[in-house]
Amino acid sequence: DKAKIYIVKALKAHLKLSHPTFETFLRLDYANCLNNLYETELSIEQNNLAIDLLKKMENTRHLGIAYGNLNATYLILGDYTQSIENGKRGLALFRKEEIANNTAVMLIWLSESYFRAGMYEEMNTNLLEAEEILSGLDDYFRQAKINFFKAQYALHQNDYQSSLKYLEKSIENFNLSNNTIFEINALIEKLFILLDILTSTKVVSPV
């Protein structure tokens, strides 16, 4: 909430100065902050205002970021069609500018949209590409996200052992990136799979 207050104050100050570049960056930060506060309608409004300014300035990189914000907002709202469409727009811009890191991040964000929409093959294709881009880098958080969704793909294939293997890697990398919340979520996911395996074994085994 404090971040939101500071950004709004700064935005009002820059609007008086009529400085479109700073206004745009503040609107992007504001939209991202609003996403974290689940104020989705206002976040969409701020993103769209930023997009109009970015198109006039022909700032491709930050335009891609704005579409990435919308990808995240619509994911929160459960509108996976809009989430995927905006993610694709952002991805196309990052590819065009050959910005590798942003491309990898957008591929991972899109993977989550595909996962929520039940589009597992599209999700896996994105994950493999993101993994290749990030190979050799010590980006533990992104690698953790990739392994988490690869675990979901393996689970969809009824490959429980591979799913657990990817979850173990995900948990380890979330730990290395000091991301406790995601680490706990991955641990819970692992527990659910182990319980599912145990339940299936009991059903199949003779009494």
Topology:
Layout lengths: L1 H16 L2 H17 L3 H18 L2 H18 L2 H18 L2 H17 L3 H15 L5 H17 L3 H17 L3 H25 L3
* Order of helix and strand elements from N to C terminus: HHHHHHHHHH
Query: What's the β-strand tally?
Result: 0
The total of helices stands at: 10
User: Radius of gyration in whole Å, from Cα?
Assistant: 20 Å
Low-confidence stretches: none
Q: Looking at the structure, what is the overall shape?
A: elongated
Oligomer: single chain
The amount of helix comes to over 70%
Structural class: mainly alpha
Sketch the major β-sheet.
none
End-to-end C-alpha gap: 57 Å
| Percent in strands | under 5%
Whole-number average pLDDT?
Answer: 90
Word description of this protein:
The chain is mainly alpha-helical and 207 residues long. The chain has ten helices and no strands. It has helices at 2-17, 20-36, 40-57, 60-77, 80-97, 100-116, 120-134, 140-156, 160-176, 180-204. Helix 6 (100-116) packs parallel to helix 8 (140-156). The radius of gyration is 20 Å and the shape is elongated. The model has no long low-confidence stretch (mean pLDDT 90).
Compose a concise summary of this entry:
With 207 residues, this protein is an all-alpha fold.
What characteristics describe this protein?
single chain
